[in-house]
Amino acid sequence: MKVLITGSNGFIGKNLISHLQEEKDLEIVTFDINDDFSKIENNINNIDFIFHLAGVNRPQSVEEFYQGNADLTKRIVDLIK
User: Fold this and answer.
1) In angstroms, how far is the first alpha carbon of the chain from the final one?
2) Which residue, 54, 55, 30, 46, is CA-closest to 80?
3) Which helix (H) or strand (E) segment is 51 a member of?
């Protein structure tokens, strides 16, 4: 099984990865704010499960909030469609 974890460098993401690494036959694909979206695009067809934990917690502007939260979620959902 191949699992995508967005927000992989956050507190929850890091702890989830630590836990999931104990499972056999599980491949983890990570994505964080420093990664290019093409990392998701190139892997989405092989992903079995997504833990979407990415998001902007304390945005500096309304645009940053939408870009880091709603827009990222929409891009992922559009790929899945």
Assistant:
1) 20
2) 46
3) strand 49-52
Encoded tokens for 73: 């979620």
Q: What are phi and psi of 60, to 5 degrees?
A: -85, -15
Counting DSSP H helices and E strands in the chain, the numbers are 4, 3
Residue 20 neighbours by CB distance under 10 Å: 15
pTM of the predicted protein model: 0.88
- Residues 38-81 have pLDDT tens digits of 999 999 999 999 999 998 888 899 988 888 888 999 999 999 99
CB 32, CB 8: distance < 8 Å: yes
Compute the Cα dihedral for 73, 75, 76, 77 and give only its sign: positive
